[in-house]
Amino acid sequence: MCPGHQAMAGSLMPPSKVVSFPQRNGPLLPAEESEAQKHIKQGGSDRHLSFLRFFPGVLAHSQRNLPSHEGLCVSCLTDQRRKANMAVCISVIAKENYPLYIRSVPTQNELKFHYTVHTSLDVVEEKISAVGKSLGDQRELYLGLLYPTEDYKVYGYVTNSKVKFVIVVDSSNTSLRDNEIRSMFRKLHNSFTDVMCNPFHTPGDTIQSKAFDGIVSGMMVQAG
Amino acid sequence: MKQHLRGGTMADEAPFQFLHNEVIQYIYKSADSGDTEHGGNISTLENMGCRVGQGLVERLTKDTARFKDELDIMKFVCKDFWTCDNKFRLLSQLSAGKQYLEHAPKYLAFSCGLVRGALSNLGVKSIVTAEVSVMPACKFQIMIQKM
What we know:
The complex is a heterodimer.
Chain A: H1 3-12, H2 30-41, H3 47-54, H4 56-62, H5 74-84, E1 89-93, E2 99-104, H6 111-129, E3 142-148, E4 152-158, E5 164-170, H7 178-197, H8 210-219
Antiparallel strand pairs in A: 1-2, 1-5, 3-4, 4-5
Helix pairs in contact in A: 1-5, 2-3, 3-4, 7-8
Chain B: H1 2-6, H2 10-33, H3 38-60, H4 70-81, H5 89-92, H6 104-121, E1 126-131, E2 139-144
Antiparallel strand pairs in B: 1-2
Subcellular location (chain A): Cytoplasm, Perinuclear region
Family (chain A): Belongs to the TRAPP small subunits family. Sedlin subfamily.
InterPro entries (chain A): Longin-like_dom_sf, Sedlin, TRAPPC2L
């Protein structure tokens, strides 16, 4: 049961009862299919169609009136929530301070992200070389918020092999919490380790791995 | 080191040992048919070990705290990366004394490369050599180049 469902179930049912949605694989019944299409015409994204096909019970649930959620169905809600936990630019920088991988949301001025990442390197160096001066220094890999600009917030993470990860996030994203950023860095680090262990990848080369691209796309703001 | 990684049954090390021995045979055989010099084989093996060491250390340091200085790095390498005993597993199958001593360097080249790769990924440039006087004990010497 997806977290969105659990949240909804909690608001409707007494806590002891668990709402289980019938999960059956396979195509939707024709009636359900037309309901789904209607829902999409009303503004749901068409990604929901494949979601709804997998969990047809959700459709039944979404027919109920849920004023607290502005009439949005579960999949719309989760989608909205998911969009909030997204980065705008993700980059991996090598030990020698050149970029191994940099990917940003396609906007008209992508160079400004490159510039932001570049300037954040100074802050990273400062944090790494602060030996024992800061009070809460737990020798962590996660460096935290590096610096906020008026539009963006920049977070940093350094591995033991001195490879730096930089994530740039929209400032208007107030719902993004620290441990969500940490888990994003964790996923990046795991994926990067897999890239390093790939015998076809030479350390020092730019990252070409499709799997890494997939992980990064999962964390970036989706276009549209 | 391999025991530390897998949690210690003999069955885990055997495949690696067999593979390692076969790799050494393969490199020497293909060198015989070509015209590479004898010393080139050892460096091929060492470079292989280097690359493996880099990947290995990346995986192992994923969860450890950040290293403050070189001392931390050396402590990590000596304690977590390498087990301390007198029986080097890659050699113990060869002999228990002085027989085959002249073949020992081939078998150590990979491990030298392993340590060198691990150190270089952690930011320490080094040269690693190994000496064997009596098998299966062997001594690794790490020379760190100060910038």
